[in-house]
Design a protein that fits this description.
The protein is elongated. The N and C termini lie far apart (66 Å). It has eight helices and seven strands, in the order H-H-H-E-E-E-H-E-E-H-E-E-H-H-H. The strands form two sheets. A five-stranded antiparallel β-sheet has the order 1-2-3-5-4, with helices on both faces. A two-stranded antiparallel ribbon has the order 6-7. The protein is of the alpha+beta class. It has two domains: 134 residues, no CATH class; 45 residues, no CATH class.
Length: 225
């Protein structure tokens, strides 16, 4: 009986551990994918190394003519991806040019859109590329990318959206770079707290923050003190 109990207990502990690994980072982070606005998505997607020209469609520029319509998306944010070399100017604004996030009012609407796109998977020029639901969003990547590139880009898009933007504490803070002390104009914690994009791209590394300030942030006029 004791041996059986130990076996059952071991199994329960193992299952609990696996479930823990599968849980989302936090409810707050998951909420980032529930009806995010265009400005938020532009800020987050701009941190992806291969992404550029991140923009939001308007009703006049929406390539699918679905923006703000019943059952349609409420936001449509797109970007170019540098991994796509066979590129046509007409692709910009569409998924073919890189990636797109479509935002819907409900999870059901997002799933309906995803199911619709699935009808065209592998259908030549009608192929919609990769697509998956995240919250009330549909995450899409270009059909011109390889399967591995699609998976990597989609993961980067999801991570950017879900990343915790709560300011943290700078680790090993320093005001010295290449032997020069910038204490009079630079506070590492202020620099970190004031620049959400750096929180995602650099994190709390004090050395990386002072390096960025000296090489880029100062010229960009970023708040640092």
């Amino acid at each position: 009986m004791g041996k059986l109990f130990k076996t059952i207990l071991s199994t329960v502990v193992s299952v609990a551990f696996i479930l823990t690994l599968c849980m989302p980072v936090s409810a707050e982070n998951t909420n980032n994918a529930v009806k995010p606005n265009a400005a938020f998505l532009i800020e987050r997607l701009s941190t992806i190394p291969t992404a550029s020209d991140v923009s939001a469609a308007t009703e006049e520029t929406d390539p699918n003519n679905k923006l703000h319509k019943p059952g349609g998306y409420q936001e449509y944010v797109y970007f170019r991806d540098s991994q796509i070399t066979d590129y046509y100017e007409g692709d910009y604004g569409r998924t073919d040019g890189g990636g797109v996030v479509e935002v819907y009012n409900t999870v059901k609407e997002a799933k309906n859109r995803n199911d619709y796109l699935a009808c065209f998977d592998g259908q030549g020029f009608l192929d919609p590329g990769s697509h998956e639901v995240l919250g009330t969003c549909v995450i899409r990547t270009s059909r011109h990318l390889t399967a591995t590139q699609q998976a990597t880009l989609a993961a980067a898009m999801k991570n950017a959206i879900l990343a915790d933007s709560t300011p943290g504490k700078v680790q090993n803070p320093t005001t010295i770079f290449n032997g020069v002390d910038y204490a009079a104009e630079f506070d590492p914690q202020v620099y970190y707290d004031s620049n959400p994009d750096l929180q995602l791209a650099i994190g709390t590394d004090g050395s990386a923050l002072i390096k960025h300030y000296v090489e880029n942030g100062k010229a960009e006029g970023r708040k640092a003190k």
